[in-house]
Amino acid sequence: METNTDAELDVAQVVAFWMTEAEEALEVADHLVAKADYSYALFFGHLAKELMQWLRSQLPFSAA
């Protein structure tokens, strides 16, 4: 993520970053389920859910 010299946040970039992190966490969870490593799969699935829920609560057009 690039740093803005005026210290302004690009909301679209921040949202895209955290959505990518959530999607990657879900991919890891899927991989772990395939390996029958359910406790860690649950952890990564929960992480993805928390990231998405947090993002939704931060957006100004949130229905939350």
In short:
This protein is mainly alpha-helical and 64 residues long. It is built from 2 helices and no strands. It is elongated, with a radius of gyration of 15 Å.
Model description:
With 64 residues, the protein is mainly α. The chain has one domain. The protein has two helices and no strands. The longest helix is centred in the middle third of the chain and has 24 residues. The chain is elongated and about 45 Å long. The protein starts with 10 loop residues before the first helix and ends in a 6-residue tail after the last helix.
Describe the secondary structure blueprint for this structure.
Blueprint: H1 11-34, H2 38-58
Helix pairs in contact: 1-2
Strand content: under 5%
Query: How many individual helices?
Result: 2
Oligomer kind: single chain
Which H/E pattern describes the elements? HH
Average pLDDT for all residues = 85
- Termini separation comes to 27 Å
List the uncertain runs: none
Biggest sheet overview? none
Total number of beta strands: 0
Structural category: mainly alpha
What percent of residues adopt helix (DSSP H or I)?
over 70%
Tell me the domain tally: 1
What descriptors fit this protein?
elongated, mainly alpha, 64 residues
